[in-house]
Specification:
Shape: globular
Strand order of the largest sheet: 1-2-3-4-5
CATH architecture: 2-Layer Sandwich
Strand content: 15-25%
Radius of gyration: 12 Å
Number of strands: 5
Distance between the termini: 27 Å
Number of domains: 1
Length: 105
């Protein structure tokens, strides 16, 4: 999985996922996010705008990240995906109500 990571001001990390977020790639994402959390980062923006697919393993990583960030006074924002299957997944699972969404039309 190719992860583009950009650190921003106020210890916010933006991660852009350009490939599938699934059972194969989710562990890699989880490890990368845990490294940042261990450094004290508790604000994340997960850019799903170009992510073509997301399954339950990917969703589990996002929920775990959100829970840990909120426990430490932080938050996770999701950039609304362009691909309809991922949009549908976020809507059907109500992730669009749990996470703060950026760029939803």
């Amino acid at each position: 999985m190719k992860l583009n990571v950009e650190e921003q001001i106020q210890r916010t990390v933006t991660v852009t996922l350009e490939e599938r977020l699934d059972v194969v790639s989710a562990p890699q994402l989880k490890r990368a996010l845990e490294e940042y959390m261990n450094q004290g980062v508790n604000q994340f923006v997960i850019d799903l705008s170009t992510t073509p697919f997301m399954d339950s393993a990917g969703m589990a990583v996002l929920v775990t990240l959100l829970r840990r960030c909120r426990m430490n006074g932080g938050n996770v924002k999701l950039v609304w995906p362009q691909h309809e299957p991922v949009q549908r997944t976020l809507t059907l699972t109500r992730f669009d109500r749990v996470f703060e969404i950026i760029g939803r039309a």
